[in-house]
Write a structure and sequence with these properties.
alpha/beta; Aspartate Aminotransferase, domain 1; Aspartate Aminotransferase, domain 2; EC 2.6.1.19; 4-aminobutyrate:2-oxoglutarate transaminase activity; PyrdxlP-dep_Trfase_small; PyrdxlP-dep_Trfase_major
Length: 458
Amino acid sequence: MSELRLSVPKMVTELPGRKSKELLKLREENVPGGVSYGIPTFIKRGEGAMFEDVDGNIMMDFAGGLGVLNIGYSHPEVVEVVKEQCEKFFHTSINIIQYEQYIRLAEKLNRLVPGDFKKKTMLVNSGAEANENAIKIARRYTGRSEIVTFTGAFHGRTSLTMALTSKVKPYKFGFGPFSAGIHRAEFPYIYRRPKGISEENAVKYFVEKLRNFFLEEVNLEEVAAIIIEPVQGEGGFITAPMEYVKELRKVCDENGILLICDEVQSGYCRTGRMFACDYWAEHGIYTDIMTSAKSIAGGLPLSAVTARAEIIESSQAGGIGGTYCGNPVAATAALKVIEIMERDNFADKANHIADIAMNRLNEMKEKYEIIGDVRGLGAMMAIELVKDQETKEPAKDEIKEIIKECNKQGLVVLDAGVRGNNIRFLMPLVITDEQLNFGLDIIENAIVKVCESVYSCC
C-alpha cells in the first residue's frame, strides 16, 4: 500500500497551480463550456480516497467521481485484471462474437438483485442508457405509453431521461421539447413538508398526494411504469420512506404497472447494502426492473438493466443492446469489483463510515444554525444548509463559498438538490478513519469561516 493511499491533504500551491492554469487555458480553447467542472485542477494519479494533482497538491475526494469510486482510485486487484484482459482483447461486440465476461456478470447480478424469481440482465454503457432501456422494456412489456417519475429526480441527460429528470437548470434548460408521456408526482421530501404537517404525519401526507395524483394527473390504465430512486441523488440524497415505497408497490400490483428502481448512484454498497432496494426486500417489496451503473466497474463505463425474466424477454431480438454494451474490459473490472466488495464487506465499510460521519454532522447541526438537515442512508449522506431554520430559505451562496474553502484546504466536495443548497458525501468506501475525520474537520472549519464572514457568527 503506497504512501498516497494512506495520506491526508497537503496543499503546496493555490488552486489552480501553474500546470493546472496551463491546462485550463487549453481546455477553454478546445472543450465546450457546457461540459462543466467543479474544481480548477487536474489529477495526476489517485489511490484509495486520495489523489495528487499535476502541481503536486495531495487532495481528498469526497465526491468519488460522482459516485463511481466506491472501491476507490486504482484498486490494485482491479488494475491487474484489467491489464490481463487488455493483453487479450479490448473489444468485440456481444451482438456479433460472444465472450464469457458478459454472461458471468449477468449471472452475478441476477443473483445479487433482490427477488426470489427468475431474473435476466442486459449490459449497457451509462446510467442514462440503462434508464432509457428500462423505459423501453417497460413500454414493450405492458403495451402502455405513460411513465411516472418524481420531483427532484435525476435519471440522465439523453432526450428521454432529460424528460424524466426534474431539475431544469442546468440539465434541461433550452433543450426541449421533451419526450411525451412523462408525468411527475411529488417525491416525499420530509424536511420540506408543508408547515403544520408534523414529521410523524408527513409520510401519510405524501401518500395521500400520490393517490390524488393518480386521480387527477394520469390514467392508471395507461401507465407502463413508475421509476424512482430509492435515495435521490441530484435531488439532495433524500430517502424514499418505506411506507411510501409500500404504497407504490401496491399501486403497481393493483394496476399492472411496473416498478423501476434507479440504483445508478445508490448501488454497489454505497447505502450499507449491496443495493438500496435490499432494504425494500426486508419488507417483502421487490422491484420489477432495476438499473445500476457508476461504481459497478470501478471507473470504466458500464451499466446494467436487471429485470424479471418475462419482462426483459418481451423485447424482440435486436431490440435492445448496442455496439459497446458490456465491453469485455469493463465487464472484467466489474466482476472483480463485485468480488472484492462481497469478500471485504464493503457494505459494512459504508455503515462504519456512516456511524462516524453522521455523528459528526449531527454534532455540527447542533452547533451551527446554517445546517437545517442531516440525512442519509449508509454512506450516501448530505447536509442541507439554510439561511433561516424557520423559513428554510436555501443558503445557496454560502454553500458555494464553503465548497471553495474546502477545495483550498484540499477536499473535493459537491453540492446537490434542486435548490443547490446541499453538500453531498460520496467518499470512496476504502477511506481510512483518519482521512474521514480529517475531511470532516475541513468541512466544519469551512462552515465556521463562511458563517463568520457572512453572519459574523454561526
